Amino acid sequence: MHLTPTTASRWADLAFILVVVIDFYCLGSARLNAAIRAVAAQGVLLSGLAILFAEPDQPIGHVIALPLIALLVKGVAIPRLLFRAMREAGPRQEDRPVVGFVPSLLLGAIGVALAFAFARSLPLPSPERHGSLVPTALATAWTGLLLVISRTKASTQVLGFLVFENGVFLIGLLLSGVMPLMVEAGLLLDLVAAVFVMGIVMFHINREFSSIDTEKLTALKD
Amino acid sequence: MLLFAVLVPPLIGALAFAYPGNVRRPLFLVVGALAHAAALVSFWVREPAPALDGLLALDPLGKVTLSTTSALFLACAVYAQGYLRRRDERDNRVFVSGLLVLLGAMTAVALAQHFGLLWVAIELTTLASAPLIYFNHNARSLEAAWKYLLICSVGIGLALLGTFLLALSGSGPDGPRSLFLPDLLAAGPSLSKPWVRAAFVFLLVGYGTKMGLAPLHTWKPDAYGEAPGLLGALLSGGLTNFAFLSIARTFQVCRAAGEDLFARQTLIGLGLVSMAVAAVFMIGQRDLKRMLAYSSVEQMGVLVLGIGLGGVAAKGAMFQSMNNGLVKGVLFLAVGNIHRTFGSRLSGEVHGAMRRLPISGALFLAGFLAITGSPPFSPFYSELAIASGALSSGHWWVAGLYLLFLLVIFVAMGATVLAVVQGDPEGTVEVPGTRDSLLTAAPPLVLLLVVLALGLYLPASLDDLFARAATLVSGS
User: Within a domain: residue A85?
Assistant: First the structure.
């Protein structure tokens, strides 16, 4: 934790840029394996950011624990779960999105622009440290929502949900000095549980329809 | 005692999960329901002390929701004895223990005085209920469970974002730096307004998804349509009330922060949109359970409209949340019985229900009359209170639209219900051994009698409770 403020914020800015780059990569990528790896990398970046944004006067357990849990859950456990689901679903899954790759990239770009515009109107507790955090977080959450809505494979939808949660997690970093560890750990735990249940459902969809394509889930409508 | 009400149902659920026998396992539901009801009775006799350093406390709003759900759950637990015996071919391990975990999580939502805990408990209700929708283990119920899980998880993610924004609104140098409801209410005007507004929008969208307000209701007809009637009753009569409670808590903070008008207009608008969407989709709806799901969308609209209007209407909304909970129990359990006997839930394939199932058919008809606000049932009084609240506060347009939507829904729902209960059952399928029995017909009958009794005579203690809950949420 002996980074000077300027070095820390330079690293943070680099990480923010990479997070947004990964957002765009997910929007433009047809190959699920690559997208899962990208989201895992995003999880690793977030755990790094959690260290950078830890309040210096916090107990050491808190400074270490949250990034470590984030690293294990977002960077390791969930990607492995998804890869397992992919293996069960058969080789080389490619996504045929409802919204094409180029339009969804454009929508993503519009989201980033809007996120920057909106974030400017919100007063930050410490603007010098958290300048690009809010727009990055909102842009990432928006990307996640786009993926959930516009993709047809159950695994890409789960992936979109993870990207969305990453955006929410980033906003949570603003609170590292305000919120007790209990709540943060509880939040991460819930994420694991959610994805776990989703994984189980995915296996069932797979067995029932011999594929993980939610396009086949169209019996229910008015 | 508060901790008892939260923890005992899931513990009994764990025992049920470990218990090997499929035939006797549903009895755990009755044990859990009775324990929960006993706790609720003790809350009525003596105000319980806050638990866990104030994390859990019972306020009038929580008391309204919990009392409703406890009664509904008890009725459903008795019904489950008859229902699960008839569905003995299915393993009910996950179903029984999941319902009990759901009861514990809902209780935690009602008692939570901290927005973080509230969020965790709401998330838990989703995780506990999603596998239950898949009880029938076929492609349709899988589709419904997947949509429910995905849409509600995203909604809950948005609510988490809203919770963070709410924390940020009080993170300034002189802010409360806390997510405890009393702290936020006390800090009131010192909260940062732009953050409060943003938080309100995200929390409303997030918990609104869970509550099933239009246009965030798309999971609802699928989930209620495919779930067993008993689960539909608990989701539409129980769980939605807790999402409503979460929105009411957010509204409380918003009002304390001086964003009263903004929040009220949003709630009124969303309430009317929900009623309109429900009315449109109910016209010509042939699927009985989906029709009830749209009725639930309508009722959720009525509730947020009520607290948005405030005053008499807010008190009406509190009363209505109890009435809707109980009547939804009657309707879903009766439709569940009809569905099983006729082997179908489409209005074209079901007619003469009153003759084949004299009790369930009559209950379905009476439940329809009750939910659409016909006297002497209690929803008549609560829906009237909301209309008079709108008129007395000068919202002429709102009152006019509200009454119009109620009328359209009455006609649309009536056409389907009458086609099902009237006529001759000749020519329809009959599944043998599925006539009304004591265990499947008595629980909805008792619920309906309670609704009738509340319409004929509202005890002063309940009336006072609704008034206090309304003042808490929406001001005097």
Answer: yes
